[in-house]
C-alpha cells in the first residue's frame, strides 16, 4: 500500500514563476494580494474585475468563479489566525478570490491584453494532454547560494506581454503625471485669481467706508448758514430724517451720502444716473431703484429733467 505523500513544509516551498509577474501577465496590473502561510494567494475580487472590465463584480463572480474559489476577507484570514489588514479598503466583508478564481475571470475576459496569457494557458493544456506534463525552462543564470530554489524562465509569449504592458503603463504614468502637474498649475492660477479678486473687493469696500466716514465727519462739522455754532447742521438733519423715514440699506446709504450734500448746498441734484453709479459703485439700475425709494418715502421729489435728459431732484421740504 502506498504511503500518503507528505506535504512540503512552507520553508521548502517555492514558486516557478513569481506570483506578481504571473498576475501581471494575466491581468496587466499589479493587483493587491494576500499570501497565506500555506502559500495560497488571495486577491480582492473588485480589483481584478475592475482591471478586466467587468462592470458588476458580483455577477462576474457568480457567472465565472466557483464558490470554492471565492470567500470573504474575514473568513480567509480567520482560517489562518491572522488579523484583518489595516486600512479602510480592507473591509471584513471584502470578497476575495484565489489564483484559480483569478484565472477563471481572465479566461472569461475579452480584453485583448489578456490574449497572450490565454494562449499560453491553452498551450499548457495541449502540452499536458500530449506529453503528460509541462515544464518551464530553467533560467540561464541560477542562484549561487547553496540550497536556493531553482529559477525558471518566464514563457516567451508571457514575458513579452509583461514587457509591453510595463512599457504601456510607464507611458500612462508619465501622461498622468503631466496631467496632474497641469491641473495643479491651473489650480494655483485660479487661487491667485481668487485672491486678487478678494483683494480688489476689500479695497473697494475700504474706499467706500472712508468716503462714508468722511461725509459723516463733514455732516457733523459743517454748520448751516445763519445757524449758531454747535447747532445741528442741515446735512446731518437731512440724513437723520432719511434714516427715520425708511430702513436704509447699504446701497441706499451709499447713494444718500453722495446726493445729500449736493441737495443741501445747491438745492437740487442735476447729475446723470451713470455719474451717480460711478461715484457709488452701484449699477445704473440700482441707483434708479434707490432714487425711486427715496421719492416713495418723501425724502426727495422730482422736478423734471435737464436739457441733456438727466433727472432733477430737490429736497422734499415740509
TrEMBL record:
The lineage of its organism: Bacteria, Bacillati, Actinomycetota, Actinomycetes, Kitasatosporales. This is Bro-N domain-containing protein. It holds the Pfam family Bro-N. InterPro entries: BRO_N_domain. It comes from the Bacteria. Residues 16-132 form the Bro-N domain.
